[in-house]
Write a structure and sequence with these properties.
10 strands; single chain; 45% helix; alpha/beta; four-stranded parallel β-sheet
């Protein structure tokens, strides 16, 4: 595989753009193909079987581009179907979000009590519990499925001072904080946008963004295997499986700016 090949990054929809942005900021020379399976979003409310089918279709699409690595930029996909991806493509380096965030949280906690907020599928998979237990068996992990947060963020309701997301965040997090967590993993692509609200409500928490952790781990992984691009300036392509305009309209929430390329609609599966 060529070090200047594309990195394939995929998510159930637009949320994975928080991961893509982290990668683009840290690795500006990488060529990236982003795929959002917007025809099938959300994954977080679906069964393992269905999520796995979608994920294998997502990777099959990206593989057409001779990618040098794939990033599962979706907590639900990574926690539910990662093993299947590794099994299906043993020659393809697979990066994700769950392990990097687990490592950061296991290092950050002082009292060994870590909270994870995520979709229902991610919380049910207990992927974070397992990953953290391997790194720090002393740690207690409390997962909470937060189904109301993704729709709020996608509707632009994540800004400080907005009572609706502030109330919903408290509804989910008050019980976790009451149990004494000192570290909180944002175990869903959309939740980094809620950081300001969470940090204001619970200043005592160390907040770990799985999106940010994933981008750092990718850089380390590519560095270790001498697979970082050595050509200046990266090319970015964006594909989705439903109407491109729907994504172009809200991508700036997740990227903090407009997309630097056109979004193309394709069909998968
Ligand atoms: N991208 C998903 C995740 O990080 C959230 C949206 C969905 O449920 O598909 O879990």
């Amino acid at each position: 595989m060529d070090k200047n090949s594309y990195i394939g990054v995929f998510d159930s929809g637009v949320g994975g753009l928080t991961v893509a942005k982290g990668i683009m900021d840290r690795l500006p020379n990488e060529n990236i193909i982003y795929f959002g399976d917007t025809a099938h979003v959300p994954y977080g409310t679906r069964s393992k079987r269905q999520i796995t089918r979608y994920v294998l279709d997502d990777v099959a699409f990206l593989r057409q581009y001779d990618i040098k690595a794939v990033v599962i930029a979706c907590n639900t996909a990574d926690s539910t179907a990662r093993e299947k991806v590794e099994e299906t493509y043993p020659d393809l380096p697979v990066f994700g979000v769950v392990h990097p965030a687990s490592e950061q949280a296991a290092r950050a906690t002082k009292n060994n009590k870590i909270g994870v907020i995520a979709t229902k599928a991610t919380a049910n998979s207990q992927a974070y519990d397992k990953a953290i237990a391997e790194i720090n068996p002393e740690a207690t992990v409390i997962d909470v499925g937060c189904p109301l947060l993704v729709p709020l963020v996608e509707n632009g309701r994540f800004k400080k001072g907005d009572l609706i997301p502030e109330t919903v965040v408290r509804e989910y997090l008050d019980p976790l904080v009451a149990q004494g967590i000192d570290t909180l993993i944002l175990g869903c692509t959309h939740y980094p946008l809620l950081t300001a609200i969470i940090a204001e409500a619970y200043p005592q928490l160390t907040i770990i963004s799985s999106s940010d952790a994933a981008a750092r781990a990718l850089r380390e992984g590519l560095q270790k295997t001498d697979m970082l691009s050595d050509t200046p300036g990266g090319d970015h392509k964006y594909f989705v499986s439903d109407d491109a305009a729907l994504v172009e309209g809200i991508a700036h929430y997740f990227m903090g700016k407009e997309l630097d390329g056109k979004v193309e609609q394709i069909s998968v599966g």
